[in-house]
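Deliverable D4.2, example record:
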Amino acid sequence: MTYLQIKLPDSLLKNLQKIAEEDNISLEEFVTSAISEKIALNESYLQERAQKGNQAKYQAILAKVPNIKPESYDQLPEA
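Output generated by the structure prediction step:
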């Protein structure tokens, strides 16, 4: 288990404490649950977006990008 220390506005902390108390859970449980829900929503959103993707259209668009060397300021450093 990892500990995370964060700074929150007082008003947000009060709201979190109120909701956690209403749900009869600790503040730690509430925050952990909220983070888990956000991650799950994000993953399902990305999966949904991926289903709408079209590999052939992607390749067609990518084929339009010129195959040229990037400007010096935009190059990756050599390893």
